[in-house]
Amino acid sequence: MSKTFQHLVSTAVPIAIENIDTDQIIPARFLKATTRDGFGENLFRDWRFDTNNEPKQDFILNNPIYKGEVLVAGKNFGCGSSREHAAWAIGDYGFKVVISSFFADIFKNNALNNFILPITVTDEFLDKIFRAIEADPATQLETDLEKQSLKIVATGEEISFDINPYKKACLINGYDDIDYLLSLRKEIESYEASREFNF
Amino acid sequence: MGKTLFDKIWDSHVVVSKPGFPDAVYINTHFIHEVTSPQAFDGLRKRGIPVFRTAKTRATADHNVPTIDQHLPIKEALSRKQVEMLTANTKEFGVELYGLGHPYQGIVHVIGPELGITLPGMTIVCGDSHTSTHGAFGAIAFGIGTSEVEQVLATQCILQYRPKRMKIEVNGQLKKGVVSKDIILYIISKISASGATGYFVEYAGEAIRSLSMEARMTICNMSIEMGARGGLIAPDQTTFDYIKGREFAPKGADWDKALAYWETLYTDADAEFDVVLTFDAADIEPMITYGTNPGMGIGVTQHIPALTEVDDKEKPSFKKSLEYMGLEPGSELLGKKVDYVFIGSCTNSRIEDLRMVADFVKGKKKAEDVVVWIVPGSKQVEAQAKEEGIDKIFEAAGFHLRQPGCSACLGMNEDKVPAGMYCISTSNRNFEGRQGPNARTFLASPLSAAAAAITGKVTDVRELV
Ligand code: SF4
Description:
The complex is a heterodimer of chains A (199) and B (465). Chain A is 32% helix and 16% strand. Chain A is of the alpha/beta class and 199 residues long. In chain A, the strands form two sheets. In chain A, strands 1-6-7-8 form a four-stranded antiparallel β-sheet, with helices on one face. In chain A, β6 (141-144) and β7 (149-152) form a beta hairpin. Chain A is globular, with a radius of gyration of 18 Å. In chain B, 31% of the residues lie in helices and 17% in strands. Chain B is built from 15 helices and 19 strands. A five-stranded parallel β-sheet of chain B has the order 5-4-3-6-7. Chain B has a five-stranded parallel β-sheet with strand order 17-16-15-18-19, covered by helices on one side. In chain B, α2 links the parallel β3 (29-32) and β4 (57-60). The longest helix of chain B has 17 residues, at 77-93. The radius of gyration of chain B is 21 Å and the shape is globular. Residues 62-63, 107, 109, 128, 130, 345-346, 406, 409-410, 427-428 of chain B line the site of iron/sulfur cluster.
């Protein structure tokens, strides 16, 4: 997984399903690893493979026409369990950007902490992306984090997205939260000294 | 202007607040378990740093543990490895562990409150989304990812943006046969699985106030199922009575001081919420879910929405969901045969839940072809149930009282619902495959689950109480 994100032009894989929960992204029985690697193999495991471990032909990740480093999904993506393994699986599979019209909070944090960019777009723009890819699976999407813009390259249709400035800087420069928190040691200790009880 | 309870607690935990940065928020209690912690400990090792405040972290093993024969080694190699790694990591870093065999072991969200670790006014996190459970005590409690577990281990702080505030008021009184699980399933069915995303919820109103602590925990537990960051309830006499005398609760003069502070923990009359929702308890009937997210719930006597009642845009997901469940749009669930009954999970595995079920099934027998698993939330709940003779009641009814753990709430340990089978479950998630590959879940209250155990089908419990 790369430790920065700035700019990406890529085709995308569309999964037009709403409320995709993290149990679908990575089922619980695959959470037993004790490292962060290798989860991509089991990304969307039960949608991708049948009970005999044969690829399900009707699932989009098994369709060679659709590929790319961008995942596009229906609203409320990443709801449910807080498992960061979902972000690890998405990153390990090779996705760098996830686009939806709505993300669950914990998933969004987890993605950002793993240098995967979650982009929230309007329902209309999400529809546009789905339709563009449906019409032409080779549709390229351009993500520019500095400008905070997402563009459908062929049509030039563009939308700007929100990201908080701190997280943006982290992604661009490859910092993480622990670096920042560790620098606050003095403040943390003086906070502790100011509290009589642990609540 | 006054402050909400949430803001009072948040403000008193902000260590550093800088424009453009998320707040650095101090965490009073950090619970960890075997699934979401190994990579965090690994991160500390890589950075060469210790756990900053070992006494503020408590560990238990719950997700991977078998719920029979816990005295034997865990059979499944990967599960065993994860549990062993927790033991090794907590030992290496000096964190207290209530592991398998320990009298305090249990589901992380059951043991915190019962040990008096969870207290009003605290900030509590855990690498587990149902950490929201602890909000029932008037604490800010929420689930975090593993990178954040590492942050908290390293610094006892977390970086967070202040969420928006939502108040959900449930007024009036519950009808017979309707319990707290029905309240929360009802709310989620009304506002959807994403209806509170971005918000921290405060539950209020007469129907909430009159609930026991166990019942309040059931409500707060499922806050995450409507997308909320967490949910909390202002502490009151019910809260204080529950805490007093528990193992790690303040004692003596400390208790008096703590109590004086806790009594200030309420939302001021003139405080403002971003959103206020109001419900009437009398409108709630026993609830059951028919789909594959917790927002897809109906009153047990209602029918599943017909296709014509579903928004065009939601149709593909709706159809996929019902296909998975093997159910027809527009049909009824009442009378539908069930194969498994699971009473357990951090939502409904506390002593009060088991008492409620025991009361109901006393003198009754389970339907022949139903498998019934009752899984206590902790060793202490298990011991208490045995002391009260509840285990005997279950035995006579043909229910199997197992040992504590997450069990069939998630298909991770040995307890899985077989493919294609229907399970009425008191847990919190009905996602595809949640209880095992291709298992089909109906979420309901412990009472409704117990009723189904007796009749072998989805039943309106009101006809039996
Ligand atoms: S009981 Fe279920 S929801 Fe609760 S902590 Fe365990 S796996 Fe998570």
